[in-house]
Design brief:
alpha/beta, eight-stranded mixed sheet, 12 helices, 20 strands, about 25% strand
Length: about 425
């Protein structure tokens, strides 16, 4: 008997008919002799609708009360799914995140999991029942409050439960057939990837591929959880996300895919004294805001002035806070001015064996040059090359790079829903 954790996103449980279809799939998995734990997101756009409702009541809702409100979405879907499963003759028990033993820190809106004690989930499985768990939420022991995990919280919930229960696989169900070489909404001929390493998936997720969230992939990598990304609209095999085999080596570059991200902005700090310690001082100020910094570029200083410019990218949601923190410490840091640009796009090319193959960079830059797309920033790792360009050229950039590396498939990729989640 295998233990399988399945996670269904909002588009997979968007309405009553979708819930009944998902319930049938879950029951089939149970009848095949498997123990089944299911993690569900809120139905369709419920979370966004609840956020809008809160904003209509007050623009300054407290984190605690907002978390209490938002967790209602998953409680609705978990209860309806349990009802649908019972109507098919199988026992099912639904649990909130706190009932399922998801213990987090006290940070509302973006809590981190600190412990998983799925005692009640294990008891349900031992009794022959299917356990249904509300994703995206947890519980802080110190405050006694309900918390939410932030973006991708249901993916993270599923992976955390899979790790704690030592599941054989964690299946992430969505509205596309797996992980593709590019977003099939941007590149219709993108190919489905049958198998990808967790490191490559991490880079794609960090670069904006929304099929899996980076926290969930990192949790899976750290705890050795095998992920299987599949569509909830058919029974096709999806994409396996696995940890690389020990000793595995790659000489030739194997390109896994292209990802794009429009959620970042760029801040340029103009006129920074080019002396030791200034970068440390500036990024200490940035760190005090808890903003996540991505790419960083420092220009060569001008000999006549002894000044340089430092540019970095960060989530747009953190832009205002970081700008204020830097402006408040301008005199101390000693720079001249700040520039903010939220019309950028980041493209990342991901694959194994890239760093030792100079031809990969040349092909990437040539493809963008021939399409008339200017590169503003460049960053590399062992398995990734990222560039920043204008937001209005990012989709074209993805298409030309995808084609340049012969990633196009023979068929048009099918998107069953509309969100990729």
């Amino acid at each position: 008997m295998s233990l399988i954790v399945q996670k269904y996103g909002g588009s997979s449980v968007a309405d009553a008919e979708s819930i009944k279809r998902v319930a049938k799939r879950i029951v089939e998995t149970r009848k095949a002799g498997n123990e089944v734990v299911v993690v569900v997101s809120a139905m369709g756009d419920t979370t966004d609708e609840l956020v809008d409702l809160a904003n209509q009541v007050t623009p300054l809702a407290s984190g605690r009360e907002l978390d209490m409100l938002l967790t209602a979405g998953e409680r609705i879907s978990m209860a309806l799914l349990a009802m649908a499963i019972k109507s098919l003759g199988q026992e099912a028990r639904s649990y909130t995140g706190s009932q399922a033993g998801l213990i987090t820190d006290a940070r509302h809106g973006s809590a981190r999991i600190v412990d998983v004690s799925p005692t009640r989930v294990r008891a349900a499985l031992d009794a022959g029942a299917i356990a249904i768990v509300a994703g995206f939420q947890g519980f802080n022991r110190g405050t006694g409050d309900i918390t939410t995990l932030g973006r991708g919280g249901s993916d993270t919930t599923a992976v955390a439960l899979a790790a704690a229960l030592k599941a054989d696989v964690c299946e992430i169900y969505t509205d596309v057939d797996g992980v593709f070489t590019a977003d099939p909404r941007v590149v219709p001929t993108a190919r489905k990837i049958d198998r990808i390493t967790s490191e490559e998936m991490l880079e794609l997720a960090a670069a904006g591929a929304k099929i899996l969230y980076i926290r969930a992939v990192e949790y899976a990598r750290r705890h050795g959880v095998t992920l299987h990304v599949r569509s909830s609209f058919n029974n096709n095999e999806g994409t396996l996300v696995v940890n690389p085999t020990d000793g595995e080596s790659v000489e030739e570059p194997i390109i896994s895919g292209v990802a794009a991200d429009l959620s970042e902005a760029k801040i340029t700090i103009v006129g920074v004294p080019d002396v030791p310690g200034k970068a440390a001082q500036i990024f200490t100020i940035v760190a005090s805001t808890d903003a996540n910094i991505d790419m960083i570029v420092q220009n060569v200083s001008t000999a006549a002035t002894g000044l340089t410019d430092i540019s970095f990218t960060l989530p747009k949601s953190d832009g205002g806070t970081v700008l204020k923190a830097l402006e408040d410490n301008k005199a101390e840091a000693g720079f001249d001015s700040l520039q903010y640009d939220d019309q950028i796009g980041k493209l990342a090319l991901v694959g194994a064996g890239m760093r030792t193959n100079a031809g990969v960079s040349a092909k990437l830059f040539t493809a963008l040059f021939e399409a008339g797309i200017n590169i503003e920033m460049i960053s590399t790792s062992e398995i990734r090359i990222s560039v920043v360009t204008r937001a209005d050229t990012i989709n074209e950039a993805v298409r030309v790079v995808h084609k340049a590396f012969d990633l196009d498939g023979d068929e048009v990729a099918q998107v069953h829903g509309g969100t990729g989640r």
